[in-house]
Amino acid sequence: MSATTGGALLGTAFGLGLVLLLSRAVVVRRPDLSVRVLPYIRDLPQVARSRTAQARRHRSPFHAVFAPLLSDAAAGVERVLGGSTSIRRRLERANLPLSVHDFRVEQVLWGLVGLGVSGCVSIVVALRAPDRTLPLLILCAVCFVTGILLRENRLSVKATARERLLMTEFPTVAELLALAVGAGEGPVAAIDRVAARCRGEMADELRRVLADIRTGTPVAAALDELAARSGLPAVARFAEAMAVAIERGTPLAAVLHAQAADAREAGRRALIESGARREVLMMVPVVFLVLPVTVLFAFWPGVVGLNLVTP
C-alpha cells in the first residue's frame, strides 16, 4: 500500500470520526422533550413519573446485569415478609416516589450491604480461627436479615417524621386558607395562593390537590384523596369538612378556623403528653446514677470509720 493510499484511508477515517462526533454533539445539545414541556406542566403529577422514566433510560450496565437477580430477591422478600399494602401505605405517608417492588429491591440492597460488611469481618476472623466458621455464617445471615428489617424500620421513621411535620404545619396553613377565603377568594384560588407562598410538607399536599383539580378531578374528590393518603385524623377531618362545606355551601372560613383551633389544641395535648413521658424518662438517671452515688457518699465515711475503730 502506497503512502498516498494510506493517507487517504487515514483522512477518510478521521473525517468519518469527526462527522460522528459532530452529529452526536448536535443530538446531545438538542433539548429533550421533557425539558421543553415540563415548565408548562410543572404542577401536574406526571412530572415525577417522567423523571422516573428518564432515570430508567439512563440505567447503568451494572443495573442491566444485576437487575434480574435483584428482582428475584425482592420477590422472595415479598413472599417471606408480605405486607405490601402496609408498605404502599407507608410509602404514601412518607411521600416517597417508590413502588413496593422498588422498596423491596432497596431492602435487598441494604441486606447485601450488611452481608458484605459482616462477610469481610467473618473472613478475617475465620482465617485466624477456622473452628468459628459456623457461628460466623450465622452472623452473616443475621446481618442480612437485619439490613432488610432496618430498611423497613427506616421507612416507618420517615413516615412518622413527615406526619409530625404535617401536624406542625397544618394549623398555620389552615389559618392562611381561612384568611384567603375570608378575603373573598374561592376555595381553589385560596389553595393556589397558599400553596404558591408556603413551603413544607403540607404545602406539597395542597399542590397535589391543586394538580388533581387542574387535571379534571372534582374539588371534593381531590380533598377526599387528601384525607385518604394523609394518615392523620386532623388532616382527614380538615379535608372532609372542607369538601362538605364546598358541596353544601356552608361558611368555609368558619370551618377552617375551627379546624385550625382543633389542630392547635391537639398539638397542645400531644406536647403535654410528651412532656409527661419525658418526665418519667428523666427519673431514670436520677434513680440509677445520682441516687446510688449519693448513698455511697453518705455511708462510705461511716463504713471507713467503723473499720478504723474496730480492732
From TrEMBL:
Residues 175-297 form the Type II secretion system protein GspF domain. Coiled coil: none annotated. Pfam families: T2SSF. Keywords: Cell membrane, Membrane, Transmembrane, Transmembrane helix. Its main location: membrane. It is a multi-pass membrane protein. GO terms for cellular component: plasma membrane. It comes from the Bacteria. It is found in: Cell membrane. The chain crosses the membrane at residues 6-27, 108-127, 133-150, 280-300. This is Type II secretion system F family protein. It comes from Nocardioides mesophilus. The lineage of its organism: Bacteria, Bacillati, Actinomycetota, Actinomycetes, Propionibacteriales.
